[in-house]
Amino acid sequence: MSPTDTSPLKNSLGEAGGHLKQAARDAGDAIKGATGAAGDELRIGKAQVKSDLAESALAGISAAEEAGSAAREQADVLMDKGRDLIDSAAELIRERPIASFGAAFAAGWIIAKLARSGDK
Questions:
Q1: Is-contact 100 93, C-beta < 8 A?
Q2: Containing domain of residue 33, as a range?
Q3: How many distinct structural domains can be found in the chain?
């Protein structure tokens, strides 16, 4: 090789440039592939999140329906107990009208006394 003969240098530089171009193409393809895969994963993840949220909403609705049913049952039980208590009081008043009147009068008198003593 003579000091002025640059053809091997040009050949090596050309070969290096070709390899760099190919490396850039390969990197671009890899990025495109990774972007596509990431997009696919995001779509799958989004669908899974929507599915989980829908299932959560359905479970919440079901729980609310169950709570409503339980509340209605408890209200029915309380109403039955209230009716039983009223029936018992009515029966007691029928059996002992004078004692019932006396108890009602005494309760009224006590409530009136307590109300007057709170005014002072």
A1: yes
A2: 10-119
A3: 1
